[in-house]
């Protein structure tokens, strides 16, 4: 039972440190009744370590991203709330401090690779969505996992699991978008993680923004794409083929973009087909029983949306029925900077996050009504 704490955007450090201390932000997780957090990161952070770029310090990261005036102000705010840091503290050292505090407060750390190039996720053709796309260098991605998994194992006491890649999705200029390509690269990345951190659970996301992964529990043939480099190529994901057989978790995302009014019986039946077969040993079609986690779900915290569609109610019922883990999107009350290519203006500093559990200043719950009727009921569903 967790939430998401983004750290993958332009500054490449966990959000909110200009408003509150690491200790205070972490404390909200157990206070809300949660036991884990999905920390999102960008491969660019590791690329900069390998290239020894000079922009890795807090001071340079913030000022380069936010500009001299605003960056100086935000840096001062971060250091005021977090005096253990200096302007020369590196991004990775900030992550280390957050990880240590998570451990002190009994929170399991799930590390998710959200993007390669550090900015908001996700959109089609944004360069981050599929293997070989503009910003998605596969070799750097695998190298990044080898580095960060080893570092986490050695330095982050409550490090428990990884999400190999967030919301894989179609792209016009990339490797073929098919399950065969997924198989080749995801299993290679899993090998790298397992070699570096053999105790870590490994979460596999599906296709189309991680909305379905049913070919894996159903044991389907994973095909390439005719007329491309994967034409006539096939594979099968057989857990026993891998050293990490006992570490596999499947992840799914579910939002309410359609503003669903479907009865829960229909909602659950449709969603079940996307991958929940993995937890149902009574389903004759299920070939591989595997854990499932809903690593992103959520909606605006305005006190009313929770009851305006059937999404919230049906989601709670799904968790109660199948007892799957989940991570709410998200704890953040605001962002340092948010860049969205499809928005005008496309870059906003200090953007408020109305889906966040916390308020803009990260010092209180944004909407107790939503927490009472959604988060707490999701927790109870696993009770």
From TrEMBL:
Top-level taxon in the UniProt lineage: Eukaryota
Gene3D superfamilies xrefs: Glycosidases (3.20.20.80)
Entry-linked InterPro entries: GH (IPR017853)
Name of the protein described by the UniProt record: Uncharacterized protein
Organism listed in the record: Pseudopithomyces chartarum
């Amino acid at each position: 039972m967790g939430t998401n704490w983004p750290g993958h955007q332009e500054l490449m450090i966990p959000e909110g440190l200009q408003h509150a201390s690491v200790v205070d932000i972490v404390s909200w997780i157990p206070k809300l009744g949660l036991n884990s957090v999905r920390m999102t990161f960008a491969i660019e952070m590791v690329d900069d370590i390998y290239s020894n770029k000079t922009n890795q310090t807090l001071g340079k990261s913030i000022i380069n991203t936010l500009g001299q005036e605003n960056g100086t102000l935000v840096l001062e705010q971060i250091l005021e709330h977090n005096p253990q840091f200096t302007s020369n503290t590196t991004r990775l050292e900030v992550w280390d401090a957050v990880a240590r505090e998570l451990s002190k407060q009994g929170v399991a750390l799930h590390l998710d690779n959200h993007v390669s190039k550090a900015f908001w996720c996700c959109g089609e053709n944004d360069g981050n969505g599929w293997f070989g796309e503009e910003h998605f260098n596969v070799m750097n991605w695998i190298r990044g996992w080898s580095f960060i998994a080893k570092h986490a194992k050695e330095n982050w006491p409550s490090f428990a699991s990884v999400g190999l890649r967030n919301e894989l999705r179609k792209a016009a200029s990339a490797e073929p978008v098919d399950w065969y390509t997924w198989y080749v690269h995801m299993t290679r990345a899993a090998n790298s993680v397992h070699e570096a951190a053999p105790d870590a659970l490994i979460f596999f996301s599906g296709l189309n923004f991680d909305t379905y992964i049913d070919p894996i529990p159903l044991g389907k043939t994973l095909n390439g794409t005719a007329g491309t480099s994967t034409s006539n190529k096939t594979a099968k994901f057989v857990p026993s083929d891998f050293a990490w057989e006992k570490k596999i978790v499947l992840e799914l995302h579910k939002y309410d973009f359609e503003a669903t009014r479907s009865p829960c019986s229909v909602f659950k039946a449709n969603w079940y087909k996307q991958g929940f077969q993995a937890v149902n040993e009574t389903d004759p079609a299920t070939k591989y029983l595997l854990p499932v986690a809903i690593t992103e779900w959520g909606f605006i915290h305005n006190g009313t949306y929770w009851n305006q569609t059937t999404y919230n109610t049906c989601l709670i019922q799904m968790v109660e029925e199948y007892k799957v883990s989940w991570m709410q999107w998200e704890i953040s009350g605001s962002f340092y900077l948010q860049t969205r290519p499809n928005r005008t203006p496309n870059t906003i500093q200090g953007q408020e996050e109305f889906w966040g559990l916390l308020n803009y200043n990260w010092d209180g719950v944004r909407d107790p009504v939503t927490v009472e009727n959604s988060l707490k009921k999701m927790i109870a569903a696993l009770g």
